[in-house]
Each structure stands twice: as structure tokens, then as C-alpha cells.
Amino acid sequence: MQIKSKPMGAYQTNCYIVSTPKGELIIDPGMGATEWVESNCKNPLAILNTHGHFDHVWSDAKLKEKLNIPVYCPEGDVFMLKKDPFAQGTPPCEVDIAVKPDKTIDIAGVKVLFRHFPGHTPGCSVIEIDDIWFSGDFLFKDSIGRWDFPYSSASDMISSLKEAKKIEKNYTIYPGHGPKTTFANEKRYLDYWIKQVMMSC
Fold this sequence. Notes:
The chain is about 25% helix and about 30% strand. The protein is α/β, with parallel strands linked by helices. Strand 3, helix 1 (about 35-40) and strand 4 (about 45-50) form a beta-alpha-beta unit.
């Protein structure tokens, strides 16, 4: 499995292209991602969103139209793609598959698990393919996603971090912003972040 990445837009949101035997999966195509995605995909299969924030979904609509491929988004964040709740001018996009929490889907023979870790957004999910996590804005290298935005939830973030602590397997993490890391590394700090979120409540 080959992974290409490029930070996009003012927020340097990582867009990923995952090459599988039958084609490419596009993860979180943010601002200005269209041309780069088109030039790096020979057989695009689908667009996958970790969550609905505008800097992760900005190019969904254009790529869906130009490439004629479906958009998968966590069920809890579909409203963000339709209504631009942050008034950023995000092009509206019709979601083809609203993925239910912790659902595994099959895309051209590839098993894709949307691990639901709400808190940053209602639908915030880690996209798991084999031993890889595309963590969106749930986990970063040495940090976690913010829980103080509209539609965010500190209590949900605490619950999600506690759930993550239970996971024993290690994963390579490709986050929504910044460099890649490992779950083993980030797991060491989960107790710290739980305390930080609790103190903010």
C-alpha cells in the first residue's frame, strides 16, 4: 500500500492518496487539493472524510463531480458538508455513504474501518486500513484535536481518549495536520490529555 500526502490550504491540512491494487482512496481533500489529486490518481475509487470540518472537505464536491466517485463521511458530520456551519464558503457536497460509528466498509476489496472517536466533532473518526490510522483531528504527533469548537464536546473527547487507551495494537498514524507518528507513542500521553480536557470543563 503506497501513501502519498500533501498539506493543503492555510491550515496545512494533510490530504492523503492511498494506492490499493484496484485504485486510489482519497482521504480529506482540503483547500486546493483538486489538481494534486487528479495528477496523482489513475483510477480513483472514493473520497473518505475523517470528519466534516471545512479544511478537510473543501474539495470534496469538485472531485466528486470531476472524478465521478462517491463520498464517504461519518454519519454525525454529514450536516457539515451540506450546510457550511462555519460560514467559510465551503462548497456544499452531497454525501453518498453516511458511515455509521465503528463501521467497516469494503471498497474494491479493501477493508476500511471508521473508528468513531467523537469530541472534536460529533462524527470524528479514525480511518483504519490494515495497520494504518488516518487520524484526522483526533490524534496528532504529541497532541490531540481541539474540543472547544462549535459542535465539539469535551465530555465526548474524554470518553474517546479513554476508549483509545483500551486499544493494545500499535498503528502508524497519519494525522490531519503535521508529521506521522505511532499510536504507541501517542498512547503514552493519553492520560495527560484526559486530565487537560477535564480541567477545561
